[in-house]
Automatic annotation (TrEMBL):
Pfam families: TetR_N. One of its GO terms (molecular function) is DNA binding. This is TetR/AcrR family transcriptional regulator. SUPFAM superfamilies: Homeodomain-like. Gene3D superfamilies: Tetracycline Repressor, domain 2. It comes from the Bacteria. Residues 27-46 bind DNA. InterPro entries: Homeodomain-like_sf, HTH_TetR. Residues 4-64 form the HTH tetR-type domain.
Amino acid sequence: MEVQEMRQVFIDSAVRVVARDGMEKTTTKAIASEAKLNEAYIYKCFSGKDDLLSAALHMEDVNFANLLQKTLPIMHMPGLSWKERAYILWKKSWDLILSKPADCIFYIRYYYSASCRAHAYETHLACFQPLIEKASKSFKPGTYMDMLIHQIFSTMLFFASRVMNGELENSEETTQWAFEQIYSFVVPNVRAEVLEEEDK
């Protein structure tokens, strides 16, 4: 097995172990057992568990950033209000997050861990920076974009966690409700001319 292939096997296994057993029980031994590979091979691919989990988060971030990159042109779709366009962007993002429950649970558990803050957070922010810069043109001067994006992200993960633990149904009503919560704090920051504009 090539090193790159082995890296991916360990990343996928780490996602499943964190999702199933939680952060505290996620050890290199548990990840290797899930991968059905010798634990020593982890250290051929990564410097250790923190490096492996950081790589797993980065994989999830890249997948999400790629979806946003492909979907962002919707915000210039003719004949729709800004809110209607934003809802389409939200729904595609939301559907991706909930389509892979193990990945979603892994993300929530790792993202809020001390390990993420210490080993992965800077890379996480850098992954989304080009998209933030592109989106910032639609917002009022002085909008603290990093804080706004963090608020969107945290609200999204909050609702996703409630769906994953069964408190909320994965339904159109939940999708709409979560969107309205996010829209309520995003829209005051959007430039008036952007909100008024409908491309002809």
